[in-house]
Amino acid sequence: MKIGIFGGSFNPIHNGHIALAKAVLKQCRLDEVWLMVSPQNPLKRDNSDLLDDRLRFEMAVRALEGVKGVRACDYEFSLPTPSYTWNTLQHLSHDYPDHTFLLLIGGDNWAYFQRWRHWQDILWHHDIIVYPRDRYSGTIDVPLLDVSSTEIRRRVRAGESISGLVPESIVPVVEQYYR
């Protein structure tokens, strides 16, 4: 199986994440895309806004109900933190030797990829799919929704609507936990 690994905090997951995963699944002819909910991003250690790991994972599971080929994954929860992508890919390759793992990252992360732990090894062993993000371009052309988890959290704190930004199935949970 060809699996796209789309890692992130998903704090919270939103419609942009889902649309991107579905587009990459189709364009790159992948069997599945796993949204890898990360317990701690080593480049975002000061994130005091980060909701509990399990709650973010459960929201992602609920948000992806009925989305064929895309699933939430808590695999990194059993690995040491911080969550280095290289370490995750090493473990995945060991645990799923019949799978091929491709890494899905934003153009903003690609611009700083040489700062990642063991980045050369990642490039040597895994294909990387770069999607456009902010002012950074990508290697694939996918429609991106102008939405961010940061903006969703801001809207919730301000009492503004998040309708259309996250799946309707998780609106009440997002409003409850990010208030």
Number of strands: 5
Strand order of the largest sheet: 3-2-1-4-5
**Treating each run of at least 4 consecutive H or I residues as one helix, how many helices?**
7
Helix content range: 25-40%
Q: What's the average pLDDT?
A: 93
Secondary structure category: alpha/beta
Notable characteristics:
179 residues, alpha/beta, five-stranded parallel sheet, 7 helices, globular
What does the model show?
There is one protein chain. By secondary structure, the protein is α/β, with parallel strands linked by helices. Helices cover 36% and strands 16% of the residues. It has seven helices and five strands. The protein has a five-stranded parallel sheet with strand order 3-2-1-4-5, with helices on both faces. Helix 2 links the parallel strand 2 and strand 3. The longest helix is centred in the first third of the chain and has 13 residues. The model has no long low-confidence stretch (mean pLDDT 93).
